[in-house]
Amino acid sequence: MTASTPAVAARVGKFRWRVCAMLLAATTINYIDRQVLGVLAPFLQDEIGWSEIEYGYIVMAFQAAYAIGLLCAGAVIDRFGTRIGYALAISIWSLAAMGHALAASVLGFILARFALGLGEAGNFPAAVKTVAEWFPKRERALAVGIFNAGSNIGAIVAPLMVPIVAAAWGWQAAFLCTGALSAIWLVVWLTRYRPPEQQPRVSAEELAHIRSDPPESTVKVPWLQLLQHRQAWSFVAAKFITDPVWWLFLFWLGKFLASEYGLSLATIGPPMIVVYLMADVGSIAGGWLAGRFMRLGWSLNRARKGAMLVCALCVAPVVLVTQVDNLWLAVGLIGLAMAGHQGWSANVFTLPSDMFPRQAVASVVGIGGFAGSVGGMAMSFFTGAQLQSTGSYSTIFLIAGSAYVFALVVVHLLAPRLEPARFELPRANGA
C-alpha cells in the first residue's frame, strides 16, 4: 500500500485547483469592490463633507448589512448549493458596487454600502463550502489561504487602479469599473462550475482523492442544533474578536496614512500596495504552515492552533505603530499585522470544515461572519468616536494588537481538541 501511494498521487488530477483559482478571482473582485471607498475616503470626505463619526456610520452600514447577509447567505447556500448561491450573491453585489456612483451625500453612501454588504456577505460562506466540497481536510487550509489571498490582491489592485480611473473620469467611474468585474466573473461561474461528481473534467482518481476523508453525515443540521455545540461557538468567538481588526485596516488604513504621514491621492498607493502584498504572503503562508505541521506528524488540533499562534504573534507588534515617525517602518508593522491576520483567517476559516459536516459548513461560517460583523460595527463606532474626540489611534491599535492571542485562548477553551461535533438527529422522512 505504501509503495503504491506515489503512483496513485501522480495520477491525481488538479482540476480542484482550477476551482480554487475561481474562488481566488471572486474574492479578489469582492475586495476590489469594497476597497474603493477605503482608497477614496480621505478625498471624498472633503468633497462630500462627512465627519469622522459620519464616516463611521457609512462603514457600519456595510457591516450591518454584511452581518444580516451572512445569517441569510449561509442558509441559502446550504439549501441551494454553491453554484446558485454564489451566483445570487455576486449579482447583488455587482449592482450595489456600481450603485455607489449615484451617491451624493452621507445617506446615499450609507444606502449603497448597505446594499453592497448584503451581496458581498455570500462570498466567504460560498467559497469555504466550495473548498469543503472539493478538497480533503489536509488540503483545505492551503486552499482557503489561496482564495483568501484574493482579499489582499483586491486591496492591492484598488489603490493601483482607483486613483488612475478617478483622476481621469471622476470618482463615480471608479465604482462603475470595479462593479463591472463582478458581472464578468458571474458569467464564467455559471458556464464553467459544477460540483465534483457532475464535473466531466474530474478524473476518477481525483474524485477519490477529494472524497478520501471518512464519510460525513448527510443529515441537515438546524441552526439551533449547531449553536448547542461548543465547536460552533469557538468559531463564532474567533470571528467576533479578530474580524474587527481587519475591518479597521480595510477602512481606516488610507485615512491613517493620509493623516499621520500627509499622503495624497497620488502617493497613497505604494504604501498600501506594500501592506497588502505582505498580507498576501501571510494568507498563503498561514495555510501552508498548518499543512506543514501536519506533514511533520502533528495532530490536526496541534497543527491548526500552532499556526494560529504564530500568526497571532505577528499581529502583536502593531501596538507600536503610533510611536513610529518613519512611514515605511509603520508600513512594515502594519503589513506584518495584516499578514498575521490573513494567516490566522486561513486557519480559522477551516475550523468549521474541521469540526462540522459539509452540509453545515456554510451555515457555521455565516453565523461566525455575523458575529465578526457585529464586532466590526462596534469597532467602527469606537474608532470614529475615538478619532473625533482625541484624534489618536493609540488605544485603537492597542486593542488590535492584543486581540489575537486572546482569541486563541478562547478558541482553545471552547474546542480544546477540535473534535468533530456529534449530532443525534432523527433521519425522518422529509428531514
UniProtKB/TrEMBL annotation:
Give the primary localization class: membrane
Against Pfam families, the record matches this protein to: MFS_1
- Places the protein is found: Cell inner membrane
**Ranges for domain Major facilitator superfamily (MFS) profile:** 19-419
> What's its membrane topology?
Multi-pass membrane protein
Looking at the UniProt record for this protein, which Gene Ontology cellular component terms does it annotate, in alphabetical order?
A: plasma membrane
The record lists the catalysed reaction(s) as: aldehydo-D-galacturonate(out) + H(+)(out) = aldehydo-D-galacturonate(in) + H(+)(in)
A single Gene Ontology MF term assigned here is: hexuronate transmembrane transporter activity
Could you list this entry's UniProt keywords, alphabetically sorted: Cell inner membrane, Cell membrane, Membrane, Signal, Transmembrane, Transmembrane helix, Transport
PANTHER family per the UniProt record, alphabetical: HEXURONATE TRANSPORTER, SOLUTE CARRIER FAMILY 17
In the record, the note on similarity to other proteins reads: Belongs to the major facilitator superfamily. Phthalate permease family.
Q: What is this protein called?
A: Major facilitator superfamily MFS_1
Q: Which organism is it from?
A: Pseudoxanthomonas suwonensis (strain 11-1)
